[in-house]
Amino acid sequence: MFLEEDFLCRLKGIERWQGDGIIADFDDPLIGEVLAGIRLPVVAVGGSYQDERAYPKGIPYVATDNHALIEAAYQHLIEAGLTQFACFSLPEAQANRWAQEREKAFRRLLQRDGLQVEIYRGMGTSAPLWDSAVEQQIAWLHSLPKPIGIIAVTDARARQLLQACLTAGIAVPEQVALIGIDNDPLTEPSHAYRSVR
């Protein structure tokens, strides 16, 4: 099953919208630029919590505590008896600095506990690249020690990795325990992994 990692945003004509206000995801800098001159009240939400200097200026901002999300997922995997861990992230981009914050939190927690840090970004996924992305994910999964707990930076990434595991015949959760982040309703039908919000 192919799921886009991000929902498509339509900004053209937003200045003519006659709502009472806008709550917008400001992870993409373009959204902040487009909404800068709008006359409606704007509240920004986003995934970057670490660096307040990166918050939008002059706009209320609700941010995600990425460290707390990763720590909750990591603790769940530890409580499940796992001792080997990996992180499935996204290719680095300005629009997803939250993914790098989640990687950094993962790295800090594992280094604190004296454990090996394994982070895999893989490819960004799109319909034309889907098969190549899954093949690369399968190769990465085969390279990992088992059993292992993997924290995916989003539920969409967890769902992709679940599909790669199923395609490769890797037992979930017995060999690969997956945790995604965000409680994405599109991925809820799959109970083979957990989600943190």
From TrEMBL:
Q: Does the keyword Secreted apply?
A: no
The keyword Disulfide bond is annotated on this UniProt entry: no
InterPro entries, from UniProt? LacI/GalR-like_sensor, Peripla_BP_I, XylR_PBP1
Q: Name one GO molecular function term.
A: DNA-binding transcription factor activity
**Taking every annotated instance into account, which residue ranges of this chain make up the domain Xylose operon regulatory protein N-terminal?**
1-67
Q: Which positions fall inside the Transcriptional regulator LacI/GalR-like sensor domain?
A: 75-187
Q: Keyword set for this entry?
A: DNA-binding, Transcription, Transcription regulation
Protein name according to UniProt:
Helix-turn-helix protein
Q: List each coiled-coil range.
A: none
